Every structure is written in structure tokens, then in C-alpha cells.
């Protein structure tokens, strides 16, 4: 959950009783110093320790591509909560494609700010890849939003024009 910005906003604006899991100790300290209930943990391992149906909703923002076994993590997320918001950078976005085609190099963009050797992303996925994973795992998409430079794009053109994807999933 990083330093807890989203968790803080959900608590103050929507009165959400939320908990956070963060890998990096300094970010955990920042969140706890803000009075947020955040624990240090690794989503690759620690999601398995949560009891089934512990939460109404789970949120995983920009983490799925960085996990060792993203499909298993998604299964744990859906086991922990019947609904989950999952966000990730879309590697099929036109800037990513253009960087590869015209520059021959992995892109550095607003949502992918690290160079290829610094990025935590070890699995590069597109919106269609994620939809296929969701179907394979037996979950349903309850809602989806495709964002680019602060605006929402149409579902038909999402792979090409959306920099970031947001999905609301539910157990099938």
C-alpha cells in the first residue's frame, strides 16, 4: 500500500475500515506514523496467511506485475475478499509500443518511470492478458476503467490508448 495515500483517502472520504500490506519498511513506517493500520509483508508470501472472506473488498494497485506468481496472488486476493480492485500499467499502450518500434528500447513513461533494469515489474501484461487470466481463474469483471493522462478511454481501444487499467473483480 506504499505510504498509505489511498488507504488514508478511503478512510477519510469513504469511512473505510481498511488495512494495508507493504513490502518496504520505510513506507510502512510512513504509513504507521500517519496513524494507518499497515503491516510489513510480502504479497508473494503473506496473502496466503489471511483468512478467507476476511474483507469485503481487497485492493491491489500496481503490484500484480511485480509479483513472482501473479495468478496465485490473484487467487489469494479473491479468497480473502469476494471483490477486488486490481490496477496495473498497460504494456500495450501506444507509448510502450512506439518506444519499442521506433526506439528499440523499453519505455520510460509516467506510469513506467523506471528503466528496464530498475523496474519492479517482472511480468509485462496487457488489458487483454489480464482479462484472459480472470476468465481462466473463474472470476468475473464487475467493472473496468481505462485511464490515460487523467482521462478515461473506451473499452474498444483500451489496449492501445489506456496507460493504466483498473478492474473490479468478483468471484464467479
Structural class category: alpha/beta
Mind summarizing the main beta sheet? 5 strands, mixed
Q: How many strands in all?
A: 7
Quaternary state of the chains: single chain
Strand fraction band? 15-25%
Count of helical stretches: 7
Output mean pLDDT: 91
Could you state the order of secondary-structure elements as H and E? Answer: HEHEHEHEHHEEHE
- Main sheet strand line-up: 3-4-7-5-6
Helix content: 25-40%
Structure characterization notes:
By secondary structure, the chain is an alpha/beta fold. Helix content is 34%, strand content 24%. The protein has 7 helices and 7 strands; from the N terminus they run αβαβαβαβααββαβ. The strands form 2 sheets. The protein has a 5-stranded mixed beta sheet. The protein is globular, with a radius of gyration of 16 Å.
What brief labels describe this structure?
single chain, 172 residues, alpha/beta, five-stranded mixed sheet, two-stranded parallel ribbon, 7 helices, globular
Task: Give a brief description.
The protein has 7 helices and 7 strands. It has helices at about 5-15, 25-35, 45, 70-80, 95-105, 125-135, 160, and strands at about 20, 40, 55-60, 80-90, 140-150, 150, 165-170.
List the SSEs and their pairings.
Blueprint: H1 5-14, E1 20-22, H2 25-33, E2 38-40, H3 43-46, E3 55-61, H4 70-80, E4 81-89, H5 94-103, H6 127-137, E5 139-148, E6 151-152, H7 158-161, E7 164-171
Parallel strand pairs: 1-2, 3-4
Antiparallel strand pairs: 4-7, 5-6, 5-7
Amino acid at each position: 500500500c506504499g505510504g498509505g495515500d489511498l488507504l488514508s483517502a478511503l478512510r477519510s472520504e469513504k469511512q473505510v475500515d481498511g488495512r494495508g500490506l507493504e513490502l518496504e519498511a520505510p513506507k510502512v513506517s510512513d504509513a504507521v506514523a500517519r496513524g494507518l493500520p499497515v503491516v510489513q509483508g510480502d504479497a508473494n508470501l503473506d496473502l496466503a496467511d489471511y483468512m478467507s472472506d476476511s474483507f469485503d473488498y481487497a485492493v491491489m494497485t500496481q503490484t500484480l506485475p511485480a509479483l513472482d506468481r501473479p495468478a496465485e496472488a490473484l487467487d489469494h486476493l479473491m479468497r480473502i475478499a469476494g471483490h477486488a480492485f486490481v490496477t496495473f500499467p498497460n504494456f500495450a499502450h501506444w507509448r510502450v509500443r512506439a518506444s519499442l518500434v521506433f526506439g528499440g528500447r523499453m519505455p520510460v513513461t509516467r506510469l513506467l518511470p523506471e528503466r528496464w533494469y530498475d523496474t519492479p515489474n517482472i511480468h509485462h501484461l496487457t488489458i487483454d492478458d489480464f482479462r484472459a487470466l480472470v476468465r481462466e481463474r473463474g472470476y468475473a469483471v464487475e467493472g473496468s476503467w481505462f485511464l490515460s493522462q487523467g482521462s478515461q478511454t473506451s473499452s474498444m481501444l483500451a489496449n492501445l490508448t489506456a496507460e493504466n487499467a483498473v478492474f473490479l473483480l468478483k468471484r464467479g
